[in-house]
Amino acid sequence: MLEIRDLYKSYKNFKVLNGLYMTIRKGDIYGFLGKNGCGKTTTMSIICNIIPKDSGEIILGEDGTNKIKIGYLPETPSMYDYMNGYEYLGYIAHCMKYDGDVKKRITGALALTGMTEGAKRRIKGYSRGMTQRLGIAAAIFGRPDLLILDEPTSALDPEGRAEVMNIIRNLSDTGCTILLCTHILGDVERVANRVGIMRDGRLAAEGSIDQILASFGLDSVEIQLSEPDERAYGLLQELPFAERVQVNEKVGLVIADVKDGQAGMGETIRFLADNAVSVTSLRLSRPTLEQVYLSIVGGHWS
Question: Does 218-286 match 2-213 at the fold level?
Fold first, then answer.
């Protein structure tokens, strides 16, 4: 659906995009992550042909013909607030020179975004959530192949975020490919099937959430000792299969970080049994997307 190859963009002497490669497949909900200033908005603006690239390739469509329809919701959509929702979508239809059944298309877009009743009111009186939903209705009016959403849930309360996430799922079910740019990692975990994490103008990680967690995070086996045991502490700090071992002698807890949690748990159990180490409990914990994200964007990457 979208392939970016070796994309560069600079503003004066500041290089925003530095050889970006990125792939979004048909049907993906792609979570686009990164700190402010890392190049996400610039990338989306280039895809939408709002600003020119310096160099590189943007390949759109399954056959690479670049003949696809794109819908775009900016972070802060600007609307004529004296209009109501129906009038605004009618204006969008006019700008697009849409020659089909305008009323039917407006009705469908409003129904899909839960704005059928709200569209009767003036935009000036909308809540932030209603504005976002009408913005999505405008972005999908042309039934895009690729929908780009820039921070669609920013400043929304939990109920508003849940509503927007449901809209995204419903749009995906219709076959729409979605590029979701957000700082809210929980939203990405809820709906995205693939993720790209930007750093220094290029992707530091790309893949499914499970792939990224496996590649950049460590599982942890938490070992609660039955009682303080210096011999056990010494043994456990030498676990041959652990990447890192942390000991908290005050609470009798040892945490062994391993690449493969299931295998690490099994090896830990065998190790404890072979060395007659008495424990109260064992617990396997997985890294979160937030932990991995912070390790990628906060550390050095080259």
Answer: no
Beta strands in 217-278 (DSSP E): 219-225, 244-248, 253-258
* The pLDDT of residue 302 is above 60: no
Quick one: which of 139, 90, 149, 86 has its CA closest to 115? 86
CA dist 146 → 44, 66, 135, 142 (Å): 11, 12, 15, 11
- Angle ∠(212,187,134) on CA atoms, nearest 5: 135
Lowest-pLDDT choice from 69-73, 183-187, 234-238, 269-273: 234-238
| Residue ranges of domains in the chain | 2-213, 218-286
Q: Are 268 and 219 in contact (CB under 8 A)?
A: no
Q: Which DSSP category does 286 fall into? A: P
CATH of the domain spanning 2-213: 3.40.50.300
Tokens, residue 93: 């239809």
218-286 belongs to which CATH class?
alpha beta
Predicted TM-score (pTM) of the model is 0.83
Among residues 92, 80, 86, which one has the least CA distance to residue 111? Answer: 86
63 burial (CB, 10 Å; 0-12 / 13-18 / 19+) is exposed
Classify 130 as helix, strand or coil. helix
Q: In 236-259, which positions are buried (b, 16+ CB within 10 angstroms) versus exposed (e)?
A: beebeebeebebeeeebbbbbbbe
Report the alpha-carbon distance of residue 16 to residue 92 in Å, rounded: 32
Please give the single-letter amino acid code of residue 59: I
Instruction: Give the model confidence (pLDDT) of 146-187 as tens digits.
Output: 999 999 887 788 888 888 898 899 889 888 999 999 988 988
Give the integer Cα–Cα distance in Å for 150 and 154: 9
